[in-house]
Amino acid sequence: MIEVKNVFKYYGNVMALDDVSFTVNEGEVVGFLGPNGAGKSTMMNIITGYLSSTSGDASVCGIDVLENPDEAKKKIGFLPEQPPLYREMKVSEYLNFVYDLKKCTLNRKAHVDEIMAVTKIANVRDRLIGNLSKGYRQRVGIAQALVGNPPVMIFDEPTVGLDPKQIIEIRNLIRNLGKNHTVILSTHILSEVQSVCDRILIINEGRLIADEKTENIARVAGSDRRYTVKIAGPRRDILRELRALSGVRSAEDTGDGDADGAAFDVEAERGIDIRKSLFNMLASKGWPIMELIPRGMSLEDVFVRIMDEDERRRTAPEGRRGGKE
Ligand code: ADP
Ligand code: MG
Q1: Residue 92's CB: how many other CB atoms inside 10 A?
Q2: 33 in contact with ligand 1, CB cutoff 6 A
Q3: pTM of the complete model
Q4: Which of 28, 129, 184, 186 satisfies CB 3.0 to 4.6 Å to 40 for a cystine?
């Protein structure tokens, strides 16, 4: 449905995209996740034909965006970071204007009415866009993207600047659109991709560093490898031995604890179950485990972790990849 192949983008000397490739299949809802400045808007503007890549290809529904931008644009409804709204137009007037602009051939009244119903803006159809709340304006932005009924919807940070209630409404709207559209949305908010998207593409400094099903992303980053362990014994000695234990990636004294013992955060190397060796080592020292709690990872942790690991991969000398810090 959407194919991006080896895309590079330079703004002068600034490399905004560094060899990005991915595909999005029909019906998928894909989240483009990355911190500010990662290259999300640049990528979306290239897919939608509003910006050309320095090199590489992008196609939508088999149409090359660079060669055939006008045809490609017909397949895409786009909500840019700055929605192209005219504050002095009324909502229905604006949607009719977009209808003309897109040279839409669907039944005008039925189509515009349907879009206003889907985006729940019929009640403000005669209001000036400039007088609407940010939440309503964003829905009008989504409505203009829907004009012409394109199969692909692309939303660039659709919930930025909205209050929590508006955010929920916009997410619900996008989730519903995802039932019969292919959707890409960008965000720097992890919970957003988690609640809306089937798949997550993580972009950092112009490079794609993860492409995973949403349900797998936490596991990939190792959410089953961290424990909080409460141990009875001398704190400093325990910490030293934990850190020396094979398979332990990191161990920290949390500073917490009670009469039973001191609490430590222990994280295993990827793919290693440290529970047995942890038990055996502590037993041999006479330091009983009072509590062992698997610690899930928040998506924030996952994000930071994936970015850290990518950073380490890039900076580690050849042959020393994946070593302990
Ligand atoms: P994001 O949408 O993820 O915040 P952008 O795609 O807007 O990231 O920007 C990616 C990088 O490209 C940033 O370093 C940004 O400063 C730079 N950049 C974006 N647009 C321009 C431009 N028009 N001219 C120069 N640099 C730009
Ligand atoms: Mg952006």
Answers
A1: 18
A2: no
A3: 0.77
A4: 186
Answer yes or no: are the C-beta atoms of 129 and 85 closer than 8 Å.
yes
Give the pLDDT band (50/70/90) at residue 224.
low
212-243 burial string, b = 16+ CB within 10 Å, else e? bebeebbeebbbebbbbbbbbbeeeebbebbe
Q: Which tens digit of pLDDT belongs to each residue from 69-88?
A: 999 999 999 999 988 899 99
Task: Please give the structure tokens belonging to residue 44.
Answer: 């979306």
- Cα of 15 from ligand 2 centre, angstroms: 15
> Cα–Cα distance between 229 and 211 in angstroms, integer?
32
* Count of CB atoms situated within 10 Å of the CB of 48: 24
| Pairing relationship of beta strands 152-156 and 76-79 according to DSSP bridges | parallel
In the chain, the largest separation of any two C-alpha atoms, in whole Å, equals 80
Q: Which ligand is nearest to the CA of 39?
A: 1
Strands 63-64 and 199-204: unpaired
- Joined together, the tokens standing for residue 278 give 């942890």
DSSP per residue over 140-192, as a string?
Answer: HHHHHHHTT--SEEEEESTTTT--HHHHHHHHHHHHHHTTTSEEEEEES-HHH
- Does residue 66 surpass a pLDDT of 50? yes
The best mutation among 7, 14, 189 to test binding of ligand 1, ranked by most ligand atoms within 8 Å of the C-beta, falls on 14
Pairwise CA distance, residues 44 & 25, whole Å: 16
221 has pLDDT over 70: no
Is 87 in contact with 128 (CB distance < 8 Å)? yes
